[in-house]
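Justification of resources, computational component.

The compute hours requested in this renewal are based largely on the per-chain cost of generating structure records like the one below. Each record pairs the submitted sequence with a full structure-token output. That output is archived, and it is also reused by downstream analysis tasks.
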Amino acid sequence: MPEAHDMVLRWRVLADIARGFPARQAAIRAGVSASSAARWARLKARTGSVEPGRGGGRGRRMLRGQREWLLAQVAARPGITLAELRAGLRARGVEASRDTVWRFLREEGLGVGERGGRLLVASRIGDPLQ
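The structure output for this chain reads:
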């Protein structure tokens, strides 16, 4: 995961913007992306601060409430695909990326592999795919 830019750099970019430089020009001068400069300016206008937010960790926590359902699906349907699990989650009102589901399953000790172009879930890591 990339690290947040230094606070001094953020404030330097914002100072350039305050002096009348367009965000793109301020970004070039500081060696950051134009989107970062624009995002920092919006953040400063909205919150008064340019502190970086807390990063990472959201996805796996998002599926904690679905743990029993997910494990029951894998136990009931050997070889269920990640796409089928995601569709089931979507029907339950939970939108999760393929990678979020994959990481959750790996943390639960379940294997994910590919057969015939489909990502299948094995009952345990090391078990053959159905």
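The beta strands are 111-115, 118-122. The mean pLDDT is 81.
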